[in-house]
Design a protein that fits this description.
Length: 203
Amino acid sequence: MTLMATLFLLVFVTELVSWIGQSVLLEFFYALYLRIFYSSTVTRQRKLKSDILLNKKELLQTSAQDQFAKWAKLRRSVDKGLADLEKLNNELSSARTAFSLKFKTALWVMTTGLQFVIGWWYRKAAVFYLPPGWLGPLTWWLAFPFAPAGSVSCGMWQMACRRVIKVGERVAKELVVPNGGSTAGQVPTEQERKEKGRAGKAE
């Protein structure tokens, strides 16, 4: 029972990650990562951007001929601010690249990789046994490849869980957005707009 629940949970989490989207999860956890480990850097970046904009605005309002000393000081301030901002951007860009690699690796290990490991480790174990003669000659297929005869193997159980979860996902989507429902008020997709445009030209 523990093996059955563990495999189902792993398949469910894997499908949930696929449904939400890896990029969405990456953005969420990266924002959290920045808030915890790079809070001061992000704060400095925001302040520097604000200062640069203010100095640029003042620079545009300052005459290089009539107020050359002030203009030169503002020009140096803007150049220094841009150089410092580029350093901070490079630092945060490197942090994002490293975090993205670690996050994707950890996500794969905790979902797909863990499924492979558990499936291999328990390749000869039975997730559960079927009633004798329940499926007749097809019983051997559910034990494929190495589980005892009359049982369901880890691989077959994972396939069944994945199939049931995908069916449940489609049913849930249809309940939320019925295919046969009214489309009034909905924004047409790009493909629909192209097809409508071609139809109008044909007329």
